[in-house]
Each structure stands twice: as C-alpha cells, then as structure tokens.
Amino acid sequence: MLAKMWQPGQRMDITKIDEDKFLFQFYHNWDMKRFLQDGSWLFYNFMLAIYKLQFGEDPLSVPLNEVEVWVQIYNLPFGFMSEEVGVLIGDHRDKFVCYDDHNNFAAWRKYMRIKVATNVQHPLEKNWAFDRVEGEKVQLTFKFEKRGTFYFLCGIIGHWRISVS
C-alpha cells in the first residue's frame, strides 16, 4: 500500500525489523530524495517518523523521536515573509529544515510555509508572540499540515541503495 502511494520509479523493498520499525530500501537515489522531500507521511492517520540510515548504523538503535512537518505561519507583518524570518521562527523551538519558496509567488500572501523537525514528545505550539522593535506585539498562529496522530507513532527507518545493472 505504501509503495503504491509513493510510486517509486525503481523497485522498493519494505522489511519489518521490529514491532514498530520497518526498513525501506529504495533502489534509486532519486526515489529516496523525492520520498524525503515530499513528506510528512501519514499511514492510517499516524505520522511516520523517518530517519535516513547511514551505512554502518544499527537500525534497531536509531532513536525515532523527530518528525518533519510543514508549518503554515499566519499573522506575519508585511515585510516579514522571508526565508531569514522563517529560519528564526523554525529554530524558535524546533529545528528549521527548509523554506517553501514555491509559496513565495505573490506580493501579499496569507501565510509563510516552512518545514521543521519537531520532537514527538513535545506538544505542538499553536501560537507564539513576540515584540517588534517598534513596541507592538505580534501574535503568530501555526497550522501544522498532515499532522495525523502524534500519540501513536509508527517508526520507520529510511535507507537507500542503488542497484547495479
């Protein structure tokens, strides 16, 4: 079912390695990159924790305590919709991953979109306020895309290899 959803161009293997951990093997680097960039991934409304396994790592000892999620940030003042501000907001409590520059096509946008790596043991922050230099308060609102159910996390370990023909 997951392979149908992700539609890799080359072969893909899924192996269960523990009660809630699976090893995904992609046979082409492009498929793995697309898989990682297009996430967050849900399976039956449960968010999947993805980790790209490095050669030599033990898949059973890898901590799966972070997930990457897209966040929409609302109520930013005019002129604050930039990647630099996105990095500051993303690193406020989570780890900034990337800025969606495809959402940067109009002079006036309703929200900024960034991807952050967040710890699954912390509650998601829905609001954050800061003071501008001019003295006024700014109250940001966060909307998390495809967040699913955080409480029952299904662990997934990502790994790719290139098949030799």
UniProtKB/TrEMBL annotation:
Ranges for domain DUF4283: 2-55
Family annotation (InterPro entries): At4g02000-like, Cupredoxin, DUF4283, Zn_knuckle_CX2CX4HX4C
Domain of life per record: Eukaryota
Stretches that traverse the bilayer: none
Zinc knuckle CX2CX4HX4C domain span: 120-159
Name of the protein in its database record: DUF4283 domain-containing protein
Lineage, highest ranks first: Eukaryota, Viridiplantae, Streptophyta, Embryophyta, Tracheophyta
